[in-house]
Amino acid sequence: MSKRILSLAVIIAGIALAAPVQAESSLNHIKQSGVIKMGYRENSPPFSFLNQNKFPDGYTVELCQIFADELAPQLGLGKLDVKWVPVTAQNRFQSLKNGDIDLECGNSTQTLARRADFDFSLMTFVDGASLLYRGGEAPKSLDDLKGQRVAVVSGTTTESTLEELIKLAKLQVILLKVKDHDAAMNALKDKSATAYAADRTVLITAVMIRGGEGKAYQLGDAQLSYEPYGIVMRRDDGMRLAVDRTLARLYRTGTIGPVLQRWFGPLGAPSEGLKSMVLLNGLPE
What we know:
The protein has helices at residues 3-18, 26-33, 59-74, 92-98, 112-115, 157-167, 181-189, 200-209, 237-253, 256-264, 272-280; strands spanning 35-41, 43-44, 48-50, 56-57, 81-87, 103-104, 119-127, 129-134, 149-153, 174-178, 195-199, 217-219, 227-233. The chain has 285 residues and is of the alpha/beta class. The strands form three sheets. It has a five-stranded mixed β-sheet, sandwiched between helices.
């Protein structure tokens, strides 16, 4: 073999060794194992939470369960076992990267930065961040919060929104970063924080869940952000298309109606934004 041919062979071999190994698709792995791993939040009602029976429940949890039921026959399986894995606002994306979960079924907002690393489904809900106060203590304007502490769950887009508003000097507050929803509500109740910042639906649900304590809280009028939710997964075209096919069918056929009513009916009529989301995401086959 000539030196030139030998050198060429070495180069080709080097390229082959340097080429990235294609990871097994999520759908193939699920088909081989017969198990799909769903991440859920233990304390983000009404989207994802542990119910009284200590079982995952909520709007996004139900959407993920519907998807799992529809995926089984598509994979040629009589049944697909669902393994529910608890995640937090802080570790949900790392859990996807590690392969601990295949889908994150909570209330995660789609952002361009997150879409650079993960795939998101079609939109599942539209919300916006707001502030919850103790009853009768809501300020006349956000300027009155100057120097006050605002509780926010770390690792959320609401945290990022508030940090950006503070950076731009439009909101002069001190952030009290907490681990979860309960910690934020406790901070508001024991007056270690003047307000609790989170998505409006989460705040409204929190007040309703507290029943008799509802009058002790007041939701602010200001909406601080735009929060388009989606089901999150690792980068995988096949998996994303499969999830989107289920969601589009639910929207297109109106089957999503009873699901929305079950989880959001007590909160009042759906917003125009939510109605538009359902209409615009009911993609045809």
